[in-house]
Amino acid sequence: MNNLGKKLPFLLSKKENKKENNEKSLHYFINGSALLKEQLSFCNYGQQKIPLRSFTAEEIISSTNGFQESVGPYLYKGNFNEKKLLVKKYERKKKMDRHDHVIRDIVISSEMSYHKNVLKIIGYCLEFERVALVYEYSQFNYLFKFFSPFCENFLTWEKRVKIAIDVASVILYLHTEFPTPVIHRNLTSSNVILDQNGVVKLYNFECCIPLPIGKVKVQDDLIGTIGYLDPEYVWSSNVTLKSDVFSFGLFLLMLLSGKEIRVNHEGKYYTEDYGLVSLENYASKCVENNKLDDNLIDSKILQVEQKKLKVFLNLALKCAQKVGEDRPNMIDVAKELQKIKKGEVQELLPTMECLLAWN
Fold first, then answer.
1. Out of the domains of life, which is the source (predicted)?
2. Longest dimension (CA), the chain
């Protein structure tokens, strides 16, 4: 009996370790199968990708010191083999989760690792219930923090235009460089960072969805960030390439105004002065009442030539039209931004008719 009493803690510990190892193996099998299936569905016809390392749970936990140093939502700083890295690890799955979009995040990120404006993924860990992603380390700040009244770093007009161009290039890549177009669905300032060299990087591609071959829309559950969602997507559950254009329009307005511009399910914006109005009507009222500096234009860039501000604002409003058919394609948006950068604002592209009576 005494011997059994001495052995009992050891036996219990051994049982717990076996249970833990079995759980890891199960997670690895389930997540690995899902990852392989997703990789095959996004196979890019031989396009070269950066090989990803499969980390063990022990390596991830050890490198992050038990996820001690958080540098953002679900993001942790780590050190593996004397090399810094970033680890994105979500909490355990919620009971109502139908899909694990993290797998898609890995696949899309790996397909885009060569893009200079995408945070470079270098590996993953399949042994957690929700897969952990491992990125190349970069000291960074979230874009939205640069618009805080307490931020000492000032984003010049030229820098804001450059950010718009770089983010547009990522969205355009998704729309044009995959075997079938991919829709981002969750373009917000919280998914955009600036590294230590001021280079803009996108990360978090878990909401991406590919269009079926030969189709221009796909029906899916509503996911993304409230306030940035395409009104047509909200009404119909149909997501299109123009859904990204809508979100990008709100992103441009944020760069111009220095504050988050969020809309309701009807695409209307709430203001203290005018109540709920469409963005186009809001901008028109601001122009009529000479309140651009208070509402739509960041005072830090008001010295910029008015015509440049007008064209940029017009482009943002055109992207954020309520009806998808009225929005430009992303390729035209990218071209217009290049023209703004070069100062070629005398004439708008044919798809960019003027929405504002601003002389």
1. Eukaryota
2. 95
d(C-alpha 157, C-alpha 331), whole Å? 22
Pairing label, strands 182-183, 132-136: unpaired
Ranges under pLDDT 50 in the chain? 11, 40, 45-46, 48, 95-96, 98-99
- Pair 283, 224: CB distance under 8 Å: no
pLDDT, one tens digit per residue, over 218-231 is 999 999 999 999 99
CA nearest neighbour of 256 among 326, 313, 183: 313
- Phi and psi at 225, nearest 5°, equal -110, 125
- In this structure, are residues 194 and 143 in contact, taking their beta carbons and an 8 Å threshold? yes
Q: For residue 101, what are its two tokens?
A: 């979009």
**pLDDT tens digits for range 297-307:** 898 898 888 88
| Whole-number Å distance between alpha carbons of 78 and 66 | 9
b/e per residue 161-190 (b: at least 16 CB within 10 A): bbbbbbbbbbbbbbbeebeebbbbbbbbbb
